[in-house]
């Protein structure tokens, strides 16, 4: 898996392909991704630049929206020989942003609104979520704002879903890795403790990754009306890899399969039940009757 400091475009793409074969589940999608990369960059001996990385990334994202390549011309890191996973978060930074809970509002009409900007690790986010949902009790309806949420910990996703999907444990998804599978579930809650109010979820073209997953799982189960813009369409689980001294990749390693639909939102995004601009989504959600449902989804 070694690669030199002075890396040609074709050499880099071959190195990337080796990592993809090592990490991604085998199948037609991986085959198409590799074939396209090798066809487009198979005869490019010139040294890799930031522009080249962007070109490789754009082509790769046709097949995996979450694959990212970050080029730093001044970096001199040692390339990874194994996937190290995500580094631990700084607890002080997490506390400084309240684990992504940016705003909690209780409106005069009884609407409870909760804005999440990220999904920090569940061990840190749990107390903030517990406090937020405690304030939601007795509200007339709920609005969950994910318009600026770039995703994060699937465990935090599952905890939020646990508050919203009822008291019984529910299967959310199965993630298929090259060498294993993992299921994600909500846990059973004490009888009557889950939120049952009408729920609208606000999304935008900036809603990404695990934030998309949360919206998708809630929509698939008929629990929420999704309002706003189609999301970015990044369903894969990814892991960071130092590919060269100058390039860090976020590479797909797991395919998410929703337990209800048997599919996911990769490439297509989460399609809103009520389409509008991200800027309009808040007012549209407040204006809708709690009986409104999209005719396209049958809800």
Describe this structure in words.
The longest helix is centred in the first third of the chain and has 15 residues, at 9-23. This protein is α/β, with parallel strands linked by helices. The radius of gyration is 21 Å and the shape is elongated. Helix 1 packs antiparallel against helix 2 (28-41), helix 5 (122-136) runs parallel beside helix 6 (154-164) and helix 6 packs parallel to helix 7 (210-220). The strands form two sheets. The protein has a six-stranded mixed β-sheet, with helices on both faces. The termini are far apart. It contains eight helices and eleven strands.
The radius of gyration computed from the alpha-carbon positions, rounded to a whole number of angstroms, is 21 Å
Write down how many β-strands occur, each being a DSSP E stretch of 2 or more residues. 11
Mean model confidence by pLDDT: 93
What percentage of amino acids are in beta strands? 15-25%
| Helix share bin | 25-40%
- Span from first to last CA? 50 Å
Largest sheet: 6 strands, mixed
Counting copies of identical and different chains, the oligomeric state is single chain
Strand order of the largest sheet: 2-3-4-7-8-11
> Number of helical segments?
8
Low-confidence stretches: 293-299
Structure class = alpha/beta
Helix-strand string: HHHEHEEHEHEEEHEEEEH
Task: Write down the overall geometry.
Answer: elongated
């Amino acid at each position: 898996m070694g690669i030199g400091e002075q890396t040609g475009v074709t050499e880099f793409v071959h190195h990337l392909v080796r990592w993809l074969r090592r990490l991604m589940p085998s199948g037609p999608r991986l085959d198409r991704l590799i074939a396209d990369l090798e066809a487009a960059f198979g005869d490019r001996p010139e040294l890799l630049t930031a522009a080249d990385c962007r070109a490789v990334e754009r082509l790769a994202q046709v097949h995996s929206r979450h694959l990212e390549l970050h080029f730093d011309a001044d970096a001199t890191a040692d390339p990874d020989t194994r996937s190290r996973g995500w580094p631990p978060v700084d607890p002080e930074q997490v506390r400084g942003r309240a684990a992504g809970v940016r705003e909690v509002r209780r409106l005069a009409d009884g609407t409870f609104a909760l804005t999440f900007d990220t999904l920090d690790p569940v061990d840190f986010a749990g107390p903030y979520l517990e406090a937020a949902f405690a304030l939601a009790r007795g509200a007339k309806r709920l609005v969950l704002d994910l318009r600026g949420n770039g995703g994060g910990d699937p465990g935090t996703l599952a905890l939020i879903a646990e508050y919203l999907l009822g008291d019984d444990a529910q299967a959310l998804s199965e993630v298929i890795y090259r060498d294993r599978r993992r299921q994600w579930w909500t846990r059973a809650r004490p009888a009557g403790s889950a939120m049952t109010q009408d729920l609208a979820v606000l999304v935008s073209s900036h809603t990404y990754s695990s934030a998309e997953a949360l919206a998708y799982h809630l929509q698939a189960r008929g629990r929420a009306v999704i309002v706003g813009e189609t999301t970015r369409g990044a369903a894969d689980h990814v892991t960071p890899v130092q590919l060269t001294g100058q390039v860090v990749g976020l590479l797909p390693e797991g395919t998410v399969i929703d337990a209800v639909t048997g599919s996911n939102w990769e490439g297509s995004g989460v399609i809103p039940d009520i389409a509008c601009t991200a800027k309009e989504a808040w007012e549209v959600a407040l204006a809708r009757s709690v009986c409104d449902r999209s005719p396209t989804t049958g809800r």
